[in-house]
Amino acid sequence: SCLLAVDGGFGYMYRIDFATTSVAMVSGMSQGTGWQLQHENCALAVENPSYALSGLSPPSSGLETLGRINLSTGDRTPLSGGAVGSGPTWSYRIWDVAVEPDGKILVLSNYPNRTAYRVDPADGSRTIATDFGIGLGLRPQLDIMSNGNIVCSMNDSVVLYEKASDTTRTLSGPTNGTGPLPTNGYGLAVGGDNEVYIFDLSLLALFKIDPVTGDRTILSRSSGTQIGSGPSFPAGGSCGVAVDKSSPTSARRWELFY
Predict the structure, then answer these.
(1) What is the pTM of this model?
(2) What Å distances lie between residue 230 and 73, 193, 227, CA to CA?
């Protein structure tokens, strides 16, 4: 098992080996060919063992484009966005990417609303999966539950799109669910039992949210009243959360700061 991360400051993708903690460059200005990885954001998803998905910057001015990154060669190929592929497209940057169980790709943009676009991996064509509306937060993120529902971060809240009813509602927030409330939710990931994990950049705390009730608990915190032991979460910068689902009974949780 390994973890992939994108350095949004310089446009590089790295592979982190779980067993050895070694870091190796996968793609970037000096590794692979094609359009460069976008510098201002770190959208990333693994499509299959051979390819990752992330935002690419066109060689001339234009919309950020969803691209495939070959994990062996580092080559980057545009897949959808702007003039690439057909259908409605985002008018601002790509904030997050996720892959649905059937292989379709979700792209989250946030202007004017937080909209999830569904991309066909075969031809790059796009449809709108759902519109989460206007929300707060520095960097919205989304992930997919095993039942096909989609969750999106909204600063102190998590909004749920229910696929069966084609409706959205607030799963967790100031008036939904119980427990401590995030103030600056940044990273988001769904676990093996559809529980939602949020990292709060201000509180330096990892929250767990019940996928049915929206109730919140803090799993780990390194500021104020500390919860858990070990090194502190670094303050400042941006972050992401990923869940290692390879062991359903003892999922390891990894937080990346870049």
Answers:
(1) 0.88
(2) 36, 26, 10
